[in-house]
Amino acid sequence: MIEIEPTLTAAIEVARTAGAILRQGFGRERTIEYKGEVNLVTEYDRRAEALIVSALQERFPDHRVIGEEGSDTGPEESPYSWLIDPLDGTTNFAHRFPVFAVSIALLERGEGLVGVVFDPTRDELFAAGAGLGARLNDEPISVSQTAELDKSLLATGFAYDRRTAADNNVGNLARFVRRCQGIRRAGAAALDLAYVACGRLDGFWEMGLHPWDVAAGTLLVREAGGRATDLAGDEDYPSGRRIVASNGLIHQQMLDVLRTP
Ligand code: IPD
Ligand code: CA
Ligand code: CA
Fold first, then answer.
1. Which residue range forms the structural domain that includes residue 101?
2. Are residues 113 and 169 in the same domain?
3. Which of 3, 62, 82, 145 has the most crowded Cβ, counting Cβ within 10 A?
4. Are residues 136 and 10 in the same domain?
5. Are 132 and 167 part of one and the same domain?
6. Of 88, 201, 204, 207, which is best to mutate to test ligand 1, by the most ligand atoms within 8 angstroms of its C-beta?
7. Do 22 and 65 share a structural domain?
8. Model-wide pTM > 0.85
């Protein structure tokens, strides 16, 4: 059995250290490589991941640790897996657009136990532990009270296969833009979810995400009183790639829009 509070404290420490590396690197000369046509990676994605993986391995040698940039260490059969996005918002980072974060989550057999999203630019640390609620810089947070989609501020994003995929989210954007107060595309899904958790956004949806993008953020949303599901309303996320997260009150309204042909 894992004690959640000290594990969360360890995850926070690691996220802050990785965030300091990103802050140092932001705006400096750097190497940009392409993983795909529009999918970038910088030396800071790799440096932050290496730091996080070694810090977690040292503290939790029995746990599996999986990172976006290729890390997969620790015993495969472990019930505990860490899912890491060392730099969520790489395109922003590479263009010097100051919206990016470190995302670290611990899952027990697929269930979120601990989630941390750290925005080093604003020094905002979002943290959640299963059953412990969600916090922003140590203050409890909760989702918004907006009950109508018509009055809501939403966020979304577009996956890296958007130039070729038929299901590239552009149709959904056109539908939602007529139904809500505003839509933001800030470029870091983990932060979008953290913003739903603290009520800055009422809802978020995206079609082509990976478990490391959403593992911490979905725990934040749930612990802050909101809902995170796939497009069918199934709570078994982050196994799916399509996500709808909200304050709960507008969730069904969002699902209805997404199901409109
Ligand atoms: C991306 C960001 C972006 C989202 C993409 C993600 P990355 O993650 O979260 O907001 O729209 O789908 O892949 O590549 O910057 O870690
Ligand atoms: Ca990401
Ligand atoms: Ca990333």
1. 4-140
2. no
3. 82
4. yes
5. no
6. 88
7. yes
8. yes
- Which residues lie at CB < 5 A from ion ligand 3? 68, 85, 87
Find all residues with CB under 8 Å of 105, minimum gap 6, and list them. Answer: 82, 83, 84, 112, 114, 115, 116, 212, 215, 216, 219
The helix or strand, by DSSP H or E, that contains position 15, with its residue range, turns out to be helix 4-25
Question: Atom 5, ligand 1: which residue's CA is nearest?
Answer: 159
Domain boundary among 121, 140, 159: 140
> What total of structural domains would you count in the chain?
2
Q: Which residues surround ligand 2, an ion (CB under 5 A)?
A: 85, 88, 213
Question: Do 85 and 37 share a structural domain?
Answer: yes
- 130 and 176 together in one domain: no
The residue to mutate among 42, 69, 213, 214, having the most atoms of ligand 1 within 8 angstroms of its beta carbon, is 213
Q: How far apart are CA 201 and CA 106, in angstroms?
A: 24
75: CATH: 3.30.540.10
Angle at alpha carbon of residue 224, lines to 92 and 23, rounded to 5°: 30
In the chain (261 residues long), the average pLDDT of successive 10-residue segments reads 95 98 88 73 92 98 97 96 97 95 96 97 98 98 98 92 76 94 98 98 95 96 97 71 94 94 74
**The two three-digit tokens of residue 152, written as one number:** 């809501």
